[in-house]
């Protein structure tokens, strides 16, 4: 977030002060109502990159989720949702990501994880890049980012609103 980006540099001393062994940083994107306030939240890519590089100098801080692909190179290209991870609802249904508004129709009480993992919901998340034409395909960073966070696209499968590499 723009208003507190500099405070992120205080994290290493904070985690030492409270006795943590490490801290994993995950990116959270404005979705839903937050999307209307995008300009307040989104940090220009270069500023975000510089801050994260500075934070990574501390061995207790590491990157989680989509940030790994952007800053360290990813074998999965883009979002890990529906590829390396999923969420389970209180009803036992699987969601590719906590921020995406859809889930499997059946849950773990009706089907096994492998069958649900192969469902249309998860197939759509894993292959969405093939379903739409996007400016991303022309971008030099497409092999690193591959579209970034799926929940950031409003509506789902639309063109990227903000390119962190251009800002």
Overview of the structural elements:
- The chain is 28% helix and 6% strand.
- It is mainly alpha-helical and 167 residues long.
- The protein has one domain.
- The strands form two sheets. Strands 1-2 form a two-stranded parallel ribbon. Strands 3-4 form a two-stranded antiparallel ribbon.
What structural keywords apply?
single chain, 167 residues, mainly alpha, two-stranded parallel ribbon, two-stranded antiparallel sheet, 4 strands, disordered C terminus
Blueprint (SSEs and pairs):
Layout: H1 11-17, E1 23-25, H2 38-41, H3 45-55, E2 61-63, H4 66-72, E3 87-88, E4 94-95, H5 113-117, H6 120-127, H7 142-145
Parallel strand pairs: 1-2
Antiparallel strand pairs: 3-4
Q: How would you classify the helix and strand content by structural class?
A: mainly alpha
> Major β-sheet, in short?
2 strands, parallel
Strand proportion, as a percent range, falls in 5-15%
For the biggest β-sheet, the strand order reads 1-2
List the secondary-structure elements in sequence, H or E.
Answer: HEHHEHEEHHH
Poorly predicted ranges: 159-165
Compact description:
With 167 residues, this protein is mainly alpha-helical. It contains seven helices and four strands.
